[in-house]
């Protein structure tokens, strides 16, 4: 069903409202039969998109409300979350930053609702990867991440006024004698502290 403007060829053109065969509805701008420009698309499953279209695809700025209660507000390219945007997850976590191909990619900040901890740094294909800072309530960690886990040199900075330097080391998997049906889970990186220092640059006292 369609009610709205058409061009001389009878194509949907201008403003219109449509009910699609699958039960979804669209209200907004058309150009030569295709959704083009600002519009509102309601999915039968409860999802809702309010934003810009280009040739039937979400493109430009738009807000998408997902059926699970999560929401994305930001840039779209060819139906994909791409560019800069903010995602509110169903569990209350939020991510604000760069996107590519529907995934967190580039610089971004992820806030964990339960702990109020924050990851500020690099992402690759949806995974924490690269230089970053993990900020907790009374301390923070500065270092590098690889595949979502801290690895290599870094430091913990404590609000009480000191730093603990060290590195995260990936433990080596022990070989089992029997053939395991399932591959063992990768071990968590282990923190090895090397020194504790003050936050302030140290200056030697002049001897009397």
Describe this structure in words.
With 208 residues, the chain is mainly β. The chain has 2 domains: 1-79, Single Sheet (Histone H3 K4-specific methyltransferase SET7/9 N-terminal domain); 91-174 and 186-199, Histone H3 K4-specific methyltransferase SET7/9 N-terminal domain, CATH 2.20.110. Helix content is 0%, strand content 61%. It has strands spanning 2-6, 12-19, 25-31, 34-42, 48-54, 57-65, 71-77, 80-88, 94-100, 103-111, 118-124, 127-135, 139-146, 149-150, 152-158, 162-169, 190-198. The protein has a 17-stranded antiparallel sheet that branches. It starts with a strand and ends in a 10-residue tail after the last strand. The model has no long low-confidence stretch (mean pLDDT 92).
SSE layout and pairings?
Layout: E1 2-6, E2 12-19, E3 25-31, E4 34-42, E5 48-54, E6 57-65, E7 71-77, E8 80-88, E9 94-100, E10 103-111, E11 118-124, E12 127-135, E13 139-146, E14 149-150, E15 152-158, E16 162-169, E17 190-198
Antiparallel strand pairs: 1-2, 2-3, 3-4, 4-5, 5-6, 6-7, 7-8, 8-9, 9-10, 10-11, 11-12, 12-13, 13-14, 13-15, 15-16, 16-17
């Amino acid at each position: 069903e369609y009610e709205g403007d058409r061009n001389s060829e009878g194509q949907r053109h201008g403003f219109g409202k449509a009910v699609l065969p699958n039960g979804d509805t669209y209200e907004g701008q058309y150009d030569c039969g295709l959704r083009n420009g600002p519009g509102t698309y309601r999915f039968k499953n409860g999802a809702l998109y309010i934003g810009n279209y280009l040739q039937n695809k979400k493109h430009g700025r738009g807000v998408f409300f997902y059926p699970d209660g999560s929401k994305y507000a930001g840039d779209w390219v060819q139906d994909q979350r791409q560019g800069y945007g903010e995602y509110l997850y169903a569990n209350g976590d939020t991510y604000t930053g760069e996107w590519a191909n529907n995934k967190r990619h580039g610089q971004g900040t992820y806030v964990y609702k339960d702990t109020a901890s924050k990851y500020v740094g690099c992402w690759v294909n949806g995974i924490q990867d690269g230089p970053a800072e993990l900020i907790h309530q009374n301390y923070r960690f500065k270092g590098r991440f690889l595949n979502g886990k801290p690895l290599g040199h870094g430091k913990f900075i404590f609000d009480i006024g000191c730093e603990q330097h060290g590195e995260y080391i990936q433990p080596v998997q022990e070989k089992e004698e029997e053939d395991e049906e399932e591959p063992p889970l990768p071990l968590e990186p282990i923190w090895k502290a090397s020194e504790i220092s003050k936050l302030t640059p140290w200056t030697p006292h002049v001897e009397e």
